[in-house]
Structure formats: structure tokens, C-alpha cells
Design brief:
Length: 96
Amino acid sequence: MDRIFKVYCADSYEAEKLASMLSGNRDDKPGVRAVAAVHGEEIVLRLTDQSSHSVMLKDAGSARDFREILLGLLASGANVKGAEQKGDVVELKLPD
């Protein structure tokens, strides 16, 4: 069974951006390559195309928690299995 992790974004626009970045690309490769920075409630993600994009989360705690989840996935070589936006929340399906 997959684990679900909820990312609380500042608003629905930020959630839509994040869900899009985490959905990967047509080659089924992960869209996110690295966490470039975390500044308060802002997290900056580096994508596989080498571009960087910031996402504003609800608060600094949400940004830190999300960073830890992403760093763990990137270190293990695992990918987010799915990302679904629900208002200002993105629900991530994580591998066990």
C-alpha cells in the first residue's frame, strides 16, 4: 500500500504548480532533480531540465517537512508515484 503525504501550499495556484512539477514528464522520469533551497515557507526545486522553480508553502514547518520527504526519495532513487491537487493541498503517493 502506498503512503500518502500531504503538502500544504500557500494557495491553490502554488499547489497546482507543485503537482505539475511532481508529475514528471513523458518519459516517466521524475520531474524534480534536487531541492535547491528552503527559505522560510518557500522551497526551490531544481527540475530535470535544469530549471529552478519556487513554491510557496503554508508555513516554514511545511517547507522543512516536504524537503525531508524529497531528500529521502532522491537519496533512495525512488519517485513520487502520484501527485493530486485538492485545493491548496497536494497529496503525494509515496512508495512504501
